[in-house]
Automatic annotation (TrEMBL):
Keyword Secreted: no
Molecular functions (GO terms): hydrolase activity; metal ion binding
Protein name, UniProt field: Acetylornithine deacetylase
Lineage of origin: Archaea, Methanobacteriati, Methanobacteriota, Stenosarchaea group, Halobacteria
TM spans (from-to): none
Similarity comment: Belongs to the peptidase M20A family.
Domain of life: Archaea
Cofactor: Co(2+); Zn(2+)
Cross-referenced Pfam families: M20_dimer, Peptidase_M20
Amino acid sequence: MDEELLSLLTSLVEIETENPPGDEAAAANFVYDWLESRGVSATLVEEPFPDRPQVAARVGEGEPSVVLNGHLDVVPAGNRDQWDHPPYEPTVRDGRLYGRGSADMKCGVALAMLATVEFADALDAGDLDGSLVFHAAVGEETAEPGTKTLLERGYDGTYGVVLEPTSLRTATSAKGLGWYEISVGGDPSHASRPDEGNNAIQNARLVLDALEAYDEEIRARSDSLVGHPTATVTRFEAGTKENVVPESATITVDRRFVPSESVEEVDAEIDALLSDVAVEHDLRVEWTRTRVYESAAVPTDGDIAARFRDAAAERADIDPEPWGIRAATDVRNLVNDAGMDAITWGPGSMAQAHAYDEYIELSEVEAGYDILRAALRGLFEDGGN
């Protein structure tokens, strides 16, 4: 295992960057200082949040231009008593590095940092054709416009790699998601006189039944790379006191959608579903979409995808068949907002993302860096053809 790579990954995991609340500044400053100390001119981008800087850099000029994108924020560690290895005291054991963000996605950031430094001299001198753009973005875990802002500020390219954990498979498609908060009304009464009220929980049961049928219906749709869409109830809240018939209930739905479905189409389906159940059962139902990540897809036979599939198959015997990732990533910004040919690819398992005792296999980290270097070098040497 390359000692510099291990040291860099360990240092990044040690820095708490939980989001919420969005505390990436210390990590951003570390990344900026590290790049500058190795001769790469970096920029602290104090947008969209002045107190949560992002880091961007560009080495070389011209084409092909490749963006290496990673995010600095991690989800909260949760109940730390559930961790056998403290989340921010990175521990190496049995060939694994444990710690929050080890897989999602401090490893991806570390690989992008090393690659930027490694290729900087050759790209700046013109020994290799093209340019490499580095992103260390904020706010990915909460759908904030970190990556989108970096792209709008000119840190874009023709190609892109979002270094999320994919177990080294190359994803040319990514599911989208929408979170929907549904409010179901009722009328309160004393629980000793329940018939004088209108129990919002009982009303919500009718909505839950409709959502279950909707989930079954949309699962019949299919995408060859990312599978089928889903609508999953993930939260339910109701009631204010033990002896009060509840006047409202709130249902949260996680709706995962495939590239052929637009946000507007999903909104319309949710609206029609809830309108129908409200009319049929004389209910008061309102909804709002609280978060959205658009889906994204690029051709499976694109240059960047083919190079990463081939390099991964050669170095680590990774399945070269076209594939898509079920999770939502910032690849949507590269593809949908900037029109880039971008993939999601990186070491680490998505099964470890957001989990207690999150870890990454160090052998996979090492293989990942070899694959990244090989794919980039081939792209630059061939001029992106």
